[in-house]
User: Fold this.
Amino acid sequence: MLKSLFSAFLMYSRIPVPQVEWKEENRRYSLCFFPLIGTVIGLLFVLWNCIALKFGFGKLFTGAVSMLISYAVTGGIHLDGFCDVSDAVSSYGNKEKRLEIMKDSHVGAFAVIKLAVCLIVQTAVYSEICSIRIAIAVAVGFMLSRSLSGIGAVCFKSAKNDGALQSFVKPSHKTITLVCLFITVILSCMAMLLSDFITGAVSAVSAFAFFVYYRISAYKRFGGVTGDVAGWFLVLCETVIAFTAVVSDKNTGVF
Assistant:
């Protein structure tokens, strides 16, 4: 279990942990611990927002640092998938062509454009967080998005038989993994509701709705999920959760 924990953090974060041998038995429960990386990001996110509110930092500066926290912890591994999917979808090719484009290590113009838009939107949304309760609701989203991503990796059809994602899915103990991930989904939703009932409820619903869209989109565009598609989902799911949290907080009367 401990080696599975280290394997998850070594792959999906830049948090220093002991090195473990890259073999299947050391990744059997790695997906169970994937949401913990989101927990670390969430704690740093809330801590930063507490500091920013305490010292009265400007909204733009607060939002920019908030946006950078996730990518500083993960090293941008999910952004890489977001860019690959952006290029593949923008090609308007068939499924085989899209999968081939995602293997290319080069970054295309469409990926750069969509990445810039995504980061700007995230910075803008995070800059609108004006209370710790909303910051907590958004922070829990980092855990919820990874829980849903893990469930999708195990339950959804794979678009290919190899790749980084499959190196964690194939050796996983699927029953235990799903039980753990469903528990973290429940805990995440409860934490969102406790932070702010209306905002938490709207944010959780938006995450589940986007998860459904993720399944439909992955099957239609690629014939299933890959590591890149999972990264694309993670980046956008976090953005959707934050966006709906901020909007619902600003328009409580509407929701």
Q: What stands out?
A: The mean pLDDT is 91. The radius of gyration is 18 Å. The longest helix spans residues 30-55.
